[in-house]
Amino acid sequence: MKRREALRAIVAGPMVLSLPRLALAEDAWPSRPVRIVAPVAPGGGVDLVARTMADRLTKVFGQSFIVDNQSGGGGVIASQAVARAAPDGYTLMLGYVGTHGTNPAVRKVPYDAVNGFTPIGMVGGTPNVLVVTPGLPVKSVQEFIAYLKDNPGKASYGSSGPGTLTHLVMEQFKQGTNTFIVHVPYRGIGPAIMDVLGGQTQAMFPGLAAALPHIKGGKMRPLAVTGTSRHRLLPDVPTLEELGYKDFDGVQWYGIVGPANMPRPVVTRLNAEINNQINLPELKEKLSGEALETMPMTPEAFGTYIKNDIAKWTQLARTRKLEIE
């Protein structure tokens, strides 16, 4: 009997031991530095959020979380690389509305924004704000609509590029108000803002963080914001929803994702700490400097949010025939 039991132990040993090893590997995570890919060049909102979360998670876990900037293709290069990475919790990404919202809606991207990633935690979002040059004779959305209808084709708006949120929100506005305004795409938000400040274009739908200094300086006139409630930094500016224009709830959002099929315990731990951090008053205050409101979610809720955002912009792109090569 003893000999048989010994043989069984020898055969079963590796199988039994493999389960504790897996558990230990997940419990010990992270045992080495974790990479957070930022799908942009250094600077700007995406990079800021990535570095803010990397710093917080480094302190929480006692292991380095390092930001790896991989720009190119409007986030396509970074997204493709992360989707192909090992799902071991050591490669994460700061996904945002461009990589997991608008890009998949208007372009044929070489990655699956839903099934190719593990949603981990939403960080937050900032609304877009409809602004016009002070020289345009309008002070409300209603007056802006009337101006566009009385002057068809005379006004233009800038965007940070075809298929970006600044482009799609204005196309949504044109559709919802039955108006027309000429689209002038730029390579990034900076030059688009410069031309609206200079009067070369008359309107824009930038993110609030980018527009706020110019609004405060009187160089842009805000007419309305997206989202479901007024923003605390612009309490006198109405939402499009309250003005009667439905479904203008899109925001420039940021969240942490990883490759598909990440270990559930790792995802759970990361989600809990992300939510803990973004609920801290000092971090809320820091992010509010970028007009960013925190949006804690479970991984499941974040995954649903991504699916719904892609579906929303896909429907708009089809209606407006906005497929971009």
Characterise this structure.
- The structure is a single chain.
- This protein is α/β, with parallel strands linked by helices.
- The chain has two domains: 163 residues, D-Maltodextrin-Binding Protein, domain 2, CATH 3.40.190; 97 residues, Periplasmic binding protein-like II (D-Maltodextrin-Binding Protein, domain 2), CATH 3.40.190.10.
- It is built from eleven helices and eleven strands.
- Strands 2-1-3-10-4-11 form a six-stranded mixed β-sheet. Strands 7-6-8-5-9 form a five-stranded mixed β-sheet, with helices on both faces.
- Helix 4 packs parallel to helix 11 and helix 6 crosses helix 11.
- The longest helix has 27 residues.
- The N and C termini lie far apart (72 Å).
Tally of DSSP β-strands: 11
**Major β-sheet strand ordering:** 2-1-3-10-4-11
Domain unit count? 2
Q: Write down the secondary-structure element order.
A: HEHEHEHEEHEHEHEHEEHHEH
CATH superfamily of the largest domain: Bordetella uptake gene, domain 1
What fold name stands as the CATH topology of the largest domain?
A: D-Maltodextrin-Binding Protein, domain 2
Return residue spans where pLDDT drops below 50 for at least 5 consecutive residues.
9-24
- Separation, N- and C-terminal Cα atoms: 72 Å
| CATH class category name of the largest domain | Alpha Beta
What level of helicity do the residues show? Answer: 40-55%
